[in-house]
Each structure stands twice: as structure tokens, then as C-alpha cells.
Amino acid sequence: MPLFQTSVLKKYLKSIESKEEVKVAYEKFTTYFHNVERQENIRKSKEEQFQEGFLRELFVKVLGYTINPEPNYNLTTELKNVKDAKKADGAILSAGKPIGVIELKGTSTTDLNKIENQAFGYKNNHEGVTYIITSNFEKLRLYIDNAIDFEEFYLFDLSFERFALLWLLLAKDNIFKDLGKQIKNDSLTEEEQITKKLYKDYSTFRQKLFNNIVELNPQYDKLTLFKKTQKLLDRFLFIFFAEDRLLLPPNSTYEILNQWKMLKDELDAYFPLYSRFKKYFGYLDKGHKGRQYDIFAYNGGLFKPDELLDSIKIDDDLLYFHTKQLSDYDFDSDVDVNILGHIFENSLNEIEEISAEIEGEDIDRTKTKRKKDGVFYTPKYITKYIVDNTVGALCEEQKKAIGLDESEFEKNRKGRRKATLERLQKQLDDYRNWLLDLTICDPACGSGAFLNQALEFLIEEHHYVDELQNKLLGGTLMLSDVANSILEKNLYGVDINNESVEIAKLSLWLRTAQKGRKLTSLNNNIKCGNSLIDDPEVAGDKAFNWEKEFPEVFAQGGFDVVIGNPPYVRNEFISEKDKQAFNSKYSVYTGKSDLYVYFFEHAFNILNSSGECGYIVSSKYTKTKYGKVLIDFLQKKTSISVFIDFQDLDVFNGAIAYPSVIVYNKRKGSKNKETLLLVVSNDNYREVDNLFSGALKVNQSELFDRLGSWTSGATDEGLFNLLKRIQENFNPLSEIVAKPQVGIKTGSNSSYIFPSNDVPKVLDGSPLIQNYLIGREVKRYKPAIAKNKILIPYTSGGRNLELVNIKVFEKEYRFLEENRDKLSKRAVIDKGILKGTKTWYEFQQIKTDFPYHAKYIVYPDISLSVNFTFAKEIYYDMTCFGLPSDSESLLGVLNSKLITVFLNTTCVKARGGYLRLKSQYILNIPIPKSFQNKELKTSVESILQEESFLSEIQERLVCLIESKFKILGSKKLQHWNELEFAEFWKELEKARKKVAKDKGEAYKKLGLGEEAEWMQYFEEQKQKAQAIQSKITIIDNEIDQMVYELYGLTEEEIAIVEEAL
């Protein structure tokens, strides 16, 4: 599973400055690690015996590190975790801090996957670790940031080319330049750019080809021609891929195009270009022996004669231009099968839309929404996790069942009893045969993302058997060629869309195609049909009888594994005819369920008695009435091993609302069966090093009760129970105040908003200029002081704001008129002007019924902690929310430690741990009926007053600095009371230096006399600020105690809250 994009990696390898240095390092490496006698001694060594030697021989002598206890060491053995007593076997250090962790095992550990979690456990314990290295002395793996992909090196048989990559990534100087991370980032950027560009060209070709075929072949219906267009595209893609991977003669497409052009232009021997391609398709189907080259009969069904496709006409110029354009891509280095997988999956959105439009059907835009700015696909970390925990779980069970212990294979044949060797050989044979009998199905296979992941997993598992076989028998490691066997025996898929089925087949062929080997016919394994309905009267020719279609599977009781991403089709888009069929067939039917619900029971029905199911689906059923029937079904009939709730994070670009992962086994577990639950509350999930390491074990019987709660993200059981209790015993905030209102969206901030000290002179004295607050200015209990002004073309007309006639305000009209064209083109406004519902100068969005001129509670939309305060006679922007309440007691409750912990647990977090304070979380805050407390009100009034005093002192010194030195915007100086004088003075001089530079003036340091005066003034003001801060802290603690009392918290519960902060 490569970490890097091939073309990017080639550039970096070519750029290695000292090729000689690599050769010298390789000579050192081979002298030690390729010595056969030494290899045998390493294999016989225990883990502890060779750990230090391994680090010294590879990392010190070859890669250039200095090991502890040498002076200035950057490599150490044994790095203790920050949070517990566990230790990594080694670490790479930069400035004394770990940037890489190393986990080592003996050669008896053949499968390095087994130590992956352990290694990432060390990584997660040390901030700043990027590189994760695991090794069994014979193999070495390198991960960067996460466990999705890695580079693996066979040290005992490492070629110079592979060593050059090892050196590029792990040599001391390179790792301190962070070169591996840079190559990975460049690879991701390159892959994204190629994917977008290729998809654009591919999509354009399909659309123009389809339109041209429809125009030139009117005798056929459009839907049939659309399907044939897609089949033709599949053929071309295989050719482009195969000629660059040397499965076909290189530059085959260029040869065809050039020959056609020469015959047409120079020899006056014209024939349609498409006829030349049809001839080539025939070669690929039957094979061809020619004078210049031979073409193997890859067959597989893709190039089988198609009477209709062979009879259509296509414009020469269109075919020439687009086949040349697409064949220009390098399908070997630039376009790997992963990029094609992304393109295939995104293609399905367009295919569904176009098909539905041709047939005049309604389509669910939430599912088939076309992604114009990016490519949607199932992320690999999801497909990998589901496959690892379904197929992988069964593999681990089987190894235990047959007694396969990889440590027994470490010793070679010499001196071992024949019976022992036969027993071990039988274990390997039994396990391989069991692998070949596994049946894995995706009942909504789409472009084949899950089937490709299962294919990758099974190939690796067969290679694992090969390694054990090699250890047992000795000799050179030979990896078995099992891809065709896996396609024929292990993988099954069904999809309602025929084009999806063909794309899934193509994606699997591209993964496994080899020169001179026929493509596996997948017609018996991947089929088109309606997975959920077997009645032809309902589903027509898409009706799918699973037992008849896959008799060999159901003769064994059903599939071993069902995996996939069931279609997210909302209930209102399901036809009444289909609903009636579901009602008669599925016990989870309610009449209000979305389509994915039926796939749960369907998976159960097609699994064998001990089968595993892993789905990525919406979690909406955990919080809806219609979901109760499904929950009851899952609780009574399945054993749920994993549930991952992504809450409302947009993991898949809007493709699934409230996504979740569930893995269950058909074997019913005990009442005390534990489920691994992870609630992902942080939207930097894509960068989480080991996303699934922070899971909580819960009893399955309590799982869905927990998921139905807003506090399901609490990882501490005591905290969960506390938050659940207050949620159940107190009313939500929504019953006390109206919905929070988001702030103003002008649609053109530069036209309406100005710094308070830089309002255009033409607007001096304007009654339409008002204070304007932004989210980062809102701080807990502090006065809402706006640093900006807004030109607001609204006035209070009674209770609500009303749009003014701007022409009445002459100077304001002239000012806005200068930007009239730009303002008229704003989204929403432009369409409104055409309809007569909007005027050119109004805002894109403003809540005209919000009481801006009264006292209200305001808070930022995103914040590291809770920051509620009061505002009055002030407008605010989109980064703020306003609660229409003037209650001091409510403000005290919202700013309390208890509610801080509640919001920390319920809110989704943005990058850096920032809380996303969406309305649904705020309105769900439980509030006691008795919150209007006189004592609490008085304390909040006091803390507001003290915060106001503190702000005055802070602002006074800041204003002095600004007026005396013209220094603006220094964050450190704005918080001067948190600094020591030496820090303050250093920051002041730094800011003065910058001002002088900006003005082009000479910088002159302040004298000692001035410094002494400033020191005295600074310390006096800081002492005043600290005295006020001490009062604030005391009052704050008193408010927290009052809030604890309002909620009836015990001493033990208070301790849980305090610990959770």
C-alpha cells in the first residue's frame, strides 16, 4: 500500500544530490544485512537481544544518526509514554523531542499489522510525532502521520532502487528536513490535481461522445445509447491503462490515430476512425499476431462483440481529439488505480442523473448531487477499517481455530520432527484453502471501492501465508499469484445500475491485469439487479433472487462477509410499489424508513450463521422513531462489535447525512456483549493519526440508548451518566428562549464594513453607521466592544428593522452607488432583483426581527471554550449568534463549568479543538426551572462589572501605546497584563522597530530613563489588573457553586466536572 504518488516520488529520487553517498550507504547496508550467516543469527535472536544492535547497524552506521548516550544524540532506545508507563523501543529526536517512534519485534512476528496499534499508541502519546516505524528486523515499515498507507522494505533482500527510497525517507538529514512528509503532501496535491483534471476531460468526452452518438444514430433510443457510450468509455480506459503498463504494445492509441491520419491525408484511403478502434477491440477479445507486435486475448467480456455498439457511427474529429487527449495521461506513473477508482465512483453520480433524466424520473439530489469542485469517493480509511474488522476478524478467528501460531514457523526445517513439519504445513494448506473459500459480498457495490479493498486485503493475507511457507521450507520468497482465484472465488457484488456493475468489473480488472494473462470473467460474480426485491412484478427485469443467482454461496449457507455503503435514498423518493414489497419482506419496515434501513436486514438474511456485516450508513435511525424497529432487530439478532458515529460531520461531501460505521456478527452475543463505541466530535478527523484508538467499550444493550443521547461523546462513564441525568431531568434551553439568530451577511464586506478608526470621511455623522461585532471579539463576561463599524441601510420601524429608501440618505446613497454593479451581482440579490423581491443595496442576510437595540446574549459561532456575554445597541456578523434574553442568571449558567463540560461533550469540534457552537447544541442545553436566582443574578452583575473595570485598565494602556508609538494590532501588547515587564518591553521595542521600518525611518531604542518610567507605570497598572482578576476568579467560583446547587450535583459529580475541564 504505497504512501506516495509514483511520478512525485520519481522526481524526488532523481533529485537526490549525492548519488555516491547513497551507494556508499548501500554498500554498508548490504555488507551487514545481506550476509546470509548473519541473517540466520538475527532470525534466531530474541527481540530484546538485537533491538539495540538493529538501531545501531541500520540507523547509526547506515542512515547517519547518533545514538544515546553519545553527545548531541538524536536517536534513543526506549521512549516512555507521557500518559503511562509504556515505552517505545526507540525514537528519533529533534531538539530533544520525538518526531519518530520505533517499535521492534523479533522475526517470529511475521505480520507487522499486529504491532501497528501498539506503535500508534506510542505516537499518540507524544505530540509532534510524524514518523512511525515498525520492524521485525527482516522487514521494516514506515508510516507518515496515519495508518492508512505505508512503505514496506524487505531488508534481507533489498535492491538498490528500494534502498534509495529507504535512504530518501529515513536518512538523518532527510528526516530532519521532513522530506517524507513533504513528498506525501506533494503526492496528495498532485493526485488531487490529476484526479480533477482527468475527471473533467473524461466527463467532457462522455458527454460529447453521447451527444454525438445520439445525433448520428437516431434509430436507437437514448437510454440504450447512453449505456453503450459508457461501455465504449470503459474499453478506452482499459486500453489507455494497459498500453502504459505494457500489457499492450506502448503507444497503441497513438499508432491507431497516426495510421488513420496518414491513410486519410496522404494515401487518400479514408475509412472511419471508429472502425479502426473496433478492429483493435477484436484483437483484445480474440488475440492477434502481427508483424510488429502481438496482442494477447485479454477477453473477460469487456471486448466481446456487441452488435449494437459495432454498428453505430461516431464523428472522426471528436474521437480523434478526445482519445488523444486522454491517452496523453501517464496511466503508469500519474494515474494509478486509486485515482481511477475515485473517478469511477464520481462517475456514478452523473450516470444516475443522466439515466434518470432520460427516463423522466425524479431523482434524489441528496445522493446524486454532482460534485463540480471535487471528486467524491469512499475514503480509504473507511473501506480499510471495515474490511479489516470483518474479513480480518474472521481471518483471526480461523487462525486460532486451526492453531496457526506464526512463532512456530520461525525455526527452519533443520532438526525438526517430520510430524511437526507436516502439522505446520497442513495448517498453512488448511488456512489457504479456507481463504479461497471465503465469500465476500457488497450488495450495493457501485464502482467497487469495497470489493477492491477486500481484494487488496486477501492478496496481502495470501502473501502472509507465503512468508510463513518460506520460513518453513527455506529458499527464495515466492509470492503466490492469487488475484484471479480471489476474483473467481471470493468476491461478489450486486448493483441496481448496470453501468455501476461494468465500472466495478473494470476497476477490479485494472487492479489485477497482468501481461499475457486473460482477464477473469466476472459475469458470475458481479451482477446487475435490485438487491432488495426479488419479485419481477415489482422490480421487473431487475428483480434479484439471491439463491438462484449465487447457488454455490447459498449451498454453504450464505456469505461469510457483507460490506458496503448502502444507497442513501430518502423515504419520500421510494415508490409506493417498492414500499409494499418491503412491507411484505422485511420486518424492519415502518413506512417512514430511508432505503438503507432495509439493507441491514437484507445483509442479515444473506449472511451465513456466523457471518460478519460492515456498513457505512447514516446514523439517523438511532435518533428517530422509525429507527426503533431496526434497533430492536439489531439488539435481538446480532452481536455488534463496532459503532463509529461521525455525528453531523460532513465526512463524505454531503453524500451521507450523519454518517456512521457499524460492524455486526450474525451470531447473537451474550447480554453483556461489549461494543466498541467511538463518537467522532472533531472535524480534523482526516488528520487523526489513529482515528479509531479513542473508542469506549459499552454494553451492547446500552449502545443505542447512548447514541440517542446528545452526550454520547462522553468517554468517561461517570461523566456520561451525570450529563445524561441532567439532560433527562431539566428542560432544554429551547423551551426558555427563542432560537439563536445568526448575524448579518452583507455579501460584500468591503462595501459596508470599516475599522472604527477608519470610516470613510464621506460617511462622517451618518445615522446609518453603527457598531459591528465579530465573533473573535466576544469574550466571556467581557463588555462587547466592537472594533468595526457597519453602514446598515435599515432603521427600526416599530419592533422590526425595515430597509430604508437609500436615496433619502444622500451621502450614503452616493457612497454605495459607486459599487452598485458589484452589489447587484451578489448571490441571492441578483436573482431577487430580477424577480422584483430584492433591492441592489440590501444585505444578503439579516434577521430583521432580532432586538439588536435591546440587551441580549451574544456568543461566537466557534470558540475554544464557552464565551457568552451581553451586547446592546450593537449589530453582529455571521461569526456570532444572538440569544434574545437579558437574564443575568441565564448568562451565569451558560458560562459555568458544568455547561462548558456539557458543550465540550456535545459539540462537534473544529481543527485545533475549537467548539462549533451550532444552534442545535445550544438549544439542547438543560436548564433548571429555578435558574432565575437572585443570588446568582447579583453575582453575575458583579462579575460583569469587574470585567468592565479590567477591560478599562487594559484598554487604557493599549490606547497609550497606540497614541504614543502608533502601534496597532499587536496581540501580545493587547494582553499586556499577562506578561512580565521584560516580555512587555521586548514586545514593545519589537513593535516600534516594525513601525519604523514600515515608515522607512531609522529605529531608535528607548533610553533607560524611559524604560524605568514605563516599568513603574506597567507594574502599577498590572497590580490593579491582578487585584481585579482575583475578584473575578472568586466570583466565578461562587457562580459555579451556585450552578452546581441548581442542578443538584453531589461532591462526587462536582469532582467529575472539574476533572473533565
From TrEMBL:
GO terms for molecular function: DNA binding; site-specific DNA-methyltransferase (adenine-specific) activity. The keyword Methyltransferase applies. GO terms for biological process: DNA restriction-modification system; methylation. The keyword S-adenosyl-L-methionine applies. Residues 489-652 form the Type II methyltransferase M.TaqI-like domain. The lineage of its organism: Bacteria, Pseudomonadati, Bacteroidota, Saprospiria, Saprospirales. This is site-specific DNA-methyltransferase (adenine-specific). Keywords: DNA-binding, Methyltransferase, Restriction system, S-adenosyl-L-methionine, Transferase. Its EC number is 2.1.1.72. Residues 797-927 form the TaqI-like C-terminal specificity domain. It catalyses: a 2'-deoxyadenosine in DNA + S-adenosyl-L-methionine = an N(6)-methyl-2'-deoxyadenosine in DNA + S-adenosyl-L-homocysteine + H(+). It holds the Pfam family Eco57I.
